[in-house]
Amino acid sequence: MASELQLQLVASLLRRGRQLDRLSDGLTLLALAIGLAPLLGGSPNPASALLCGLLVMLGLVQKYWAVRVALDGELFARLARQPEQLAARTQQLDQALAGLGLQPATAAGRDWHARSRGALQLLRRQALWLGAQVLLALAAILAMPWFSFAG
What we know:
Blueprint: H1 4-15, H2 17-36, H3 46-80, H4 86-99, H5 112-150
């Protein structure tokens, strides 16, 4: 059985996903603004439109993982407040998740160490999608001078 401190630690780590999500939101909104600039009179550029589209798509995938991380973070924080009721709450949680179709019935009954590893894996996925978004944005910034010479 997981300790109260372990549950709080996982919840605290999962809350860091909000910071990742905010950074991704900024990149996504910036890409959206640049991509929509031709509608406001800017000159259309197919390469810029493709790049902005890719940045927005990466941001949306990151947002999916951010929602999953936030849900797990709230669940871990709630369960950490009442560690003496963890066994009963775990069973209720598994029933609720299965009833909503968010977890297969075969996943019920996992220990909290496995659940912690799974939740942290979601945070890693979120960070990887943000990393892809940042790398694409940096590659575009570094490639801009070369595009001006070619055009």
